[in-house]
Design brief:
Keywords: Acyltransferase, Transferase
Radius of gyration: 20 Å
GO molecular function, one term: acyltransferase activity, transferring groups other than amino-acyl groups
Family: Belongs to the thiolase-like superfamily. Thiolase family.
Organism: Rhodococcoides trifolii
Protein name: Acetyl-CoA acetyltransferase
Largest sheet: 10 strands, mixed
Length: about 400
């Protein structure tokens, strides 16, 4: 992202709710999605100590924009948060990368001069608004020309994860071992209070609800394949059916919000920049394997930044499924020891539209704690898409 306008984009605040289980028994199930997002929006400006009237726009990522998450939830939530009626809001959908894309749009806006202060945020209440509920039965959003281009048909994300696992040759044990490490890291981070400054507790939930302390490979080995399909198996006989609920991210509820401005405006407002948004990229990739886009997205953002993989101190790669991160690490040469150091989505959870902002909040916090300079975040997204962002600690 070239800074051709002479303005930079800095993060001066980042908060998230604890991530709840996306089911009826989850701690956040009783919270309306607009109120769940409003909590992060309100906490963000309260902690920054700024007048919300200064916010030029609220850009929110949300994937399933139906029912309680419909009708431009960005606007509904900002009003619920007590922002002045003069503050606008818009809701964007780039699938799992929706709120990472919101961060990109916000950064581009302040760098261009279109904004001085903007909030990038994300929301998903998967327990109250299930995936796919924005498509009515009997309707196909793809259209005839799309189907004609892919006459053999595509597959769901779980099957794409199976294809990746088979293509890269990962065993069930490797996938489960990666998942166990995610829980171990998230458990340690929680116990040591590493998430404390980024969390905004709500509805009595103080910490992330999905983390399973003491989770072991032996336990995960007993889980059945989550996406077994006889027809898919006939089409792709190489699939070994290794993806389970244990090595995939769980259904989740949560919200997050990031405050973005320029260094100059931050100084005027007395705000301390936490990190500079150094470079951003977005790519399209094979929609059949759809989750591998993180690999070219990483390469593209590094090229734009003029950096190498060795220059990056921390990585955050969304753990939609274990093989996504493992394939990414193998192909990019990234160090897994520097990746998702406080655990990832397999343990913390993946509240779709909120995950980009949630991960950015965690990454900014981790970069400060470790004293590193550069961190890189990337997300695989349905349909064969991926976003990548590099930030620099100030």
């Amino acid at each position: 992202m070239a800074q051709s306008f002479g303005r930079d984009a800095v993060i001066v605040g980042a908060v998230r709710t604890p991530v709840g289980k996306g089911k009826g028994s989850g701690a956040l199930h009783g919270v309306h999605p607009a109120d769940l997002l409003a909590h992060s929006l309100r906490t963000l400006v309260d902690r920054a100590g700024i007048d919300p009237a200064l916010v030029d726009d609220v850009i929110t990522g949300a994937v399933t924009q139906a029912d309680e998450q419909a009708f431009n939830i960005a606007r509904t939530a900002l009003l619920a948060a007590g922002y002045p009626e003069s503050v606008p809001g818009t809701t964007v959908d780039r699938q799992c990368g929706s709120s990472q894309q919101a961060i990109h749009f916000a950064a581009q806006g302040v760098m261009s001069g279109a904004y001085d202060v903007v909030v990038a945020s994300g929301i998903e209440s998967m327990g109250r608004v299930p995936m796919g509920s924005n498509v009515r039965p009997g309707f196909d959003p793809r259209g005839h020309d799309f189907v004609a281009r892919y006459p053999d048909g595509l597959v769901g994300q779980g099957h794409s994860a199976e294809l990746i696992s088979a293509e890269w040759g990962f065993s069930r044990t490797q996938l489960d071992e990666f998942a166990v490490r995610s829980h171990e890291k998230a458990t340690t981070a929680t116990k040591e209070g590493r998430f404390a400054t980024e969390l905004a507790p709500i509805a009595g939930l103080e910490t992330d609800e999905n983390i399973r302390p003491g989770s072991g490979v032996e336990t995960l080995a007993g889980l059945k394949p989550a996406y077994y399909d006889e027809a898919v198996g006939r089409r792709f006989p190489q699939i070994e059916w290794n993806i389970t609920a244990g090595n995939a991210s769980p259904l989740s509820d949560g919200s997050a919000a990031v405050l973005i401005t320029t260094s100059e405006v931050a100084a005027k407002l007395g705000l301390t920049p936490l990190a500079r948004i150094h470079s951003v990229a977005v790519i399209g990739s094979d929609p059949l394997y759809m989750l591998t886009g993180v690999i070219p997205a990483t390469k593209k953002v590094l090229e734009r930044a003029g950096l190498t993989i060795a220059d990056i101190d921390l990585f955050e790669v969304n753990e939609a499924f274990s093989p996504v991160v493992l394939a990414w690490a193998r192909d990019t040469g990234a160090d897994l020891a520097k990746t998702n150091v406080n655990g990832g989505a397999i343990a913390i959870g993946h509240p779709l539209g909120a995950s980009g902002a949630r991960i950015m909040t965690t990454m900014v916090n981790a970069l400060e704690q470790t004293g590193g300079r550069y961190a890189l975040q990337t997300m695989c997204e349905a349909g064969g898409l991926a976003n990548a962002t590099i930030i620099e600690r100030i």
